[in-house]
Amino acid sequence: CSMSNKPLSEGEKKFVHDLIGDDPDAWYEWVNKTNAKLVVQSRLLVVSKYRIFSIKRTTTGKKRVQREGHLFSLKEIYSDDIDRVVLHFKDFKIDVSRKLLGTELPRIVLQHFYLISYTFSSADSPKLTILPVDRVPPSVEPVD
Description:
With about 140 residues, this protein is α+β, with helices and mostly antiparallel strands. The protein has 2 helices and 8 strands. Strands 4-3-2-1-7-6-5-8 form an 8-stranded mixed β-sheet, sandwiched between helices. It is globular, with a radius of gyration of 15 Å. The two termini are about 25 Å apart. The relative contact order is 0.15.
């Protein structure tokens, strides 16, 4: 789990656990998602062993998975600002932001990808785009 600007409630933690099971390496926290119409909405972003989830809280307080993508469907991790990351999957994208997310999320996603794909060639890895070019790209620990 990660340190978050907004701690998860017990109900939110239970929802995540029911969704992904016991995953000690999972990362999850509330972020701001920007949709195609540039409307900002709160989403619980979950990076689990194999998948990334974007979870919405409905007006009645229920939680619902809005987007779900397997790490192997992730085509690009794009960050043009230290507070923003866009995850481009094969059929959709998730555009999320919060303070310093662009310095943290690309590393976390790549780390999860490499943990399950150590036999993959780098050509199969998601493309990493970090802009402007003077930003330091994330370093990921190699997997043995």
